[in-house]
Amino acid sequence: MQHLNTIIIGGGQAGLATSYYLQQQQVEHVVFEQAAQAGNAWRNSRWDSFSLLTPNWTLQMPGAEYQGDDPDGFLPRGEIVAYFEDYVKRFDLPVQYGVRVTAVEHVADSGKYQVTTDRGVWLADHVVVATGLFQGPKKPAFAENLSSRITQLHSSAYRNPQSLPDGAVLVVGSAQSGCQITEELYESGRKVYLCVGSAGRAPRRYRGRDVFDWLKQAGFFDRTVDKLPTPKAKFSGNPHLSGKDGGHTINLHQFVRDGVQLMGRITSGENETVMLAGDLHESLAKVDKFEADVVKIIDDFIAKNGIDLPAESLPDLRDGYAVENIRELDLASAGINTILWAQGYTFDFSLIKLPVTDADGYPIQQRGVTNYPGLYFVGMPWLSKYKSGLLVGVGEDSAYIASHIASS
User: How far is CA 13 from CA 74, 88, 96, 390, in A?
Assistant: First the structure.
C-alpha cells in the first residue's frame, strides 16, 4: 500500500486551488480526478454557447488571477477549459486523471486514512474531499414513467438546439442553466414550456456597473453560513442572468412576451401527462422580490459610502402574472418531444466511511475542517461563506486547509 501525506479527491477548481497551496508549501500530495482531462465540468457539462456567468475578473484561482484586457467580459466555454488546462501545467500540479475513489476509511490504530480507488489502495495522513455539491444529474423518479417517445436530457447533457429532436421543448427548472437554455431555444425558433422555481433574478448591470462588482463591494459574497435563515437555504438555486454576448439580464416576464409558456413546478408525470403545482405566480413573486432585495443592497451601499451616481429604475415587467396557472399538460398535444431537466444536481458523500454529514447530507465541519483529524472538505457553497464554492472565493478556504495540513 502506497503512502502519501495528502490525497485530494477531485480535480475541479477547489481541488486544484488546494493543490496549488500544498505545492507552494512543499507538502507531498496527489490529486485524484476521475475525469480524463482538466476542466471537466466546463468541458463536458456545459452547452456549446456557454459563457462564464461572472465577469472575467472573478477568475481568481490562486496564482492565476485574471490579468487579461477584458476584466468585465465573460469568457466562452473553450477559453475557460483552456484556463484550467494551463493552470495544471503552469504549476505542475500532481493530478492523476481517470482515477475514481470508491472509499475513504479511517485506520483507527494509526490515525491515517485508507483511500481505495479503481487503480489501487493508498494510505494518507490527510484527505481533502473536493468533489463539490454538483456530482450527479438530478432527475425526478417519475421521469421513468413518461412516454418513451420523449427524449429526456439533463441540462448538463444539452449542447445546442440543433442536437434536439424537432418540436417543442419542456424545460424544468428556472435557475441559471434552465433560463439560459430556455432563452437559446426560443431564440432558435423553438416553442418552449418552462417550469418555474423560486431562483431569483438579478440585473446584469445596475447604476453603471456589473451586479457582481457591486455585490462584491457590498460584502454579499462574504456572508457567513451563520447568516442563513435555515440550513437548507444553502441549497437554493443561483439567480438567473447571462454572460452570453457580453452579458445581459434574463427576465421571466420578458420570456412571456417572447412566447415562452411559463408554468409552476412539476409535481408528477405519467405517459404523456405531467402535473403541475399551480404555484407560478407565487414563484414569480419570489423571483421579483430577489431582484428588489439585490437592488436595495446596492442602493444602500451607494448611499452609505456617499458614491455620487444617478438613480436608476429597472423595468417593471408584470407579464407573468397574467399567465394562467396550468395544472396539467398533455405533452403530445403541446408538441413536446424533449424534456430538459434543469433542477440541479445531487450529491453523495457516502464514499467517506465515517459519520461526517448532517441530516441534509451536507458535511459537518468548520471552514472545511471535520471532527476527524486529517479529513477536510473544500469547494462547496457556504462551507464558510457564500463564495466558498465560487471562482472568486474558492482560494480562501483552500489556503486555510492547506495551511492546516502543512502545520499538522
Answer: 18, 10, 15, 9
Q: How far apart are CA 83 and CA 52, in angstroms?
A: 12
Instruction: Enter the CATH code of domain 2-135+347-406.
Output: 3.50.50.60
Q: Where does the pLDDT of residue 243 fall: very low under 50, low under 70, confident under 90, or very high at 90 and above?
A: very high
Domain ranges of the chain: 2-135+347-406, 138-341
138-341 and 2-135+347-406 share a CATH fold: yes
How far, in Å, are 255, 278, 340 from residue 314 at the CA level?
Answer: 16, 28, 30
pLDDT bracket for residue 231 (50, 70, 90): confident
Give the CATH architecture of domain 138-341. Answer: 3-Layer(bba) Sandwich (3.50)
What's the pLDDT score for residue 234?
Answer: 84
Mean pLDDT of 265-286: 97
Q: Which amino acid is at 22?
A: L
What is the maximum alpha-carbon separation in the chain? 66
Question: Within the chain, how many helices (H) and strands (E) appear?
Answer: 8, 19
Grid coordinates representing 196? 418555474
H/E stretch holding 396: helix 394-406
Percent of the chain with pLDDT over 90: 93
* CA 340/CA 150 separation, integer angstroms: 10
